[in-house]
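Troubleshooting: if your tokenizer reports a length mismatch, compare your output against this known-good record of 300 residues.
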Amino acid sequence: MQSLSAYRIFYTVAVQGNISNAARELYISQPAISKSIQKLEESLGCKLFNRNSRGVSLTQEGEMLFSYVSTAFEALNTGEDRLKNALNLGIGHLKIGVSSTLCKYMLLPYIKAFTKQYPHINISILCQSTNESLAMLEEDKIDIGLIAKPDHGKLLRFHFVGEVEDIFVATTDYLNLLKTRGVPEDQILSQSTLMLLDKKNMTRQYIDDYLRENQIQTQDFIEVSSMDLLIDFAKLNLGVACVIRQFVKEELDQKEFIEIPLGFPIHKREIGFCYKEAAHLSKSLELFIQFFQKEEWTVH
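Known-good structure output:
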């Protein structure tokens, strides 16, 4: 197949009906245009133009080729116009990976502000674990993730937006139940029903490391898939739940939850946006990065 530039010359000459006019349109010399047409005719094995004193006209074979070439260039022109319009309006698509917990408590308020500023950008939110978001980033299946800072990921750019602190909580009624069983305060975690996120969650892996490092052996535990369920189960007096302090502030303030004292505190974790550093950034992602970098982020 001939080059796109050869067909562009053919198309322009056919539209203009004149080689000199086509030369002015394309900003190239008349001899260069004539040579390009000649090479195209030789490669196709047919004559494309009839020459006359007033200019050129398409032959029957030229008319056939022009019908296809014109459709192709009209499609390209339409594509360019729509792309320019999309860029001017900020039209685009952004795919964000985030855990259901961080989505509810951190991401949604800022998505609301972002979409108000850029209403033409469509956003897909994939609620999943941090580990799954990291895997999808590596496979280019999402553009950006709101995650706990990973221990690895040299090719990933991490932008810090806040800290979270894991704590253990229970209701007064449940703690009173443990007390009647003779469970001392420093053995609450090992003697209670411990409620944790499931094992595929990075938070669970972090807490498992904490329990192992501090030689805390658990007897009974309940695994759930979301922080909201942990909070709800704790309110039902089903056990001691591992939750994020910032997400149960109201319950702690109102004494609905009591924080379990720990001999060794759980280190705070950094939360931020993560995206591929070496990847070509879409316009939508560039706008989102600029947005969250200038916003004052807080954990709600």
